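TASK: fixed-backbone design
INPUT:
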């Protein structure tokens, strides 16, 4: 019998600055994470893909996927923001942005024109989070607005009608529930029952809101968890598969290949 490792806890709503140093190993946490490099560069292995970040780009990604830095320039200076799921869902971020993040993409500001303003804002937010509750609330509102602006410049925004508002709220509740329970969820019907929605309505709402099926999202989270297990433990592949909710090793291999650019679990472990 394998031991099911629980999903990693949230890092909380935080804003801080520091120097990038080599990470001891891949980790994941159920938050949206922002990186803004003030100087230098860094290369991430994120969800099985390598992504280079350069100074001046405001970048957000879904930290529920395992990520680790594999290269960084000396003295790379960075500001970080972590936003827990509950906060992000209350902001009603554009579904196009969330869909991109769920697929494992890092979303970056396309232009460096706002880099100087971003640097100033980050310094202000860092100070706000060290001060009063009122200043922290103001910083949170400004961070939400910055992510909305990032979405406007990177992903198409669908028209919002009264009907789609309800669908987005249902999808958001499902998104958060799966993020906390993906290892044990048996079907979309289980998710629907947990959040008080009809299964068919949930499936349609999730697909329409985020652009991926809800069961694809469950599988994506399980594969992300398995990637972290492969890189941080010596457990055999069949044990990892069972611990991540797969009934057979062959089903695990098929899902892993689908969500890891065709790479097998064994090769992923070697590359990592």
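OUTPUT:
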């Amino acid at each position: 019998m394998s031991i099911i490792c629980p999903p990693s806890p949230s890092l909380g709503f935080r804003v801080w600055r520091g120097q990038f140093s080599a990470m001891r190993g891949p980790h994941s946490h159920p938050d949206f994470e922002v990186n803004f490099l003030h100087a230098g560069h860094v290369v991430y292995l994120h969800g099985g893909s390598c992504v280079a970040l350069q100074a001046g780009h405001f970048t957000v990604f879904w930290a529920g996927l395992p990520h680790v830095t594999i290269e960084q320039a000396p003295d790379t200076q960075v500001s970080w923001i972590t936003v827990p799921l509950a906060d992000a869902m209350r902001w009603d971020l554009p579904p196009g942005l969330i869909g991109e993040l769920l697929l494992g993409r890092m979303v970056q500001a396309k232009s460096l024109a706002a880099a100087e303003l971003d640097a100033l804002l980050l310094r202000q937010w860092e100070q706000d989070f060290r001060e009063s509750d009122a200043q922290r609330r103001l910083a949170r509102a400004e961070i939400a607005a910055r992510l909305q602006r990032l979405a406007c410049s990177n992903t198409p925004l669908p028209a919002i009608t009264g009907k789609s508002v309800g669908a987005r709220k249902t999808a958001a509740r499902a998104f958060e529930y799966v993020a906390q329970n993906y290892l044990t969820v048996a079907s979309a019907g289980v998710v629907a029952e947990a959040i008080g929605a009809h299964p068919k309505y949930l499936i349609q709402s999730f697909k329409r809101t985020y652009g991926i099926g809800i069961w694809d999202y469950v599988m994506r989270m399980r594969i992300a968890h398995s990637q972290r297990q492969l890189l941080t433990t010596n457990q055999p592949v069949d044990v990892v598969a069972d611990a991540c909710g797969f009934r057979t090793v062959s089903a695990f291999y098929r899902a892993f290949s689908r969500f890891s650019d065709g790479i097998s679990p064994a090769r992923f472990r070697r590359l990592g």
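COMMENT: The domain at 160-272 is CATH 1.10.10.60 (Arc Repressor Mutant, subunit A).
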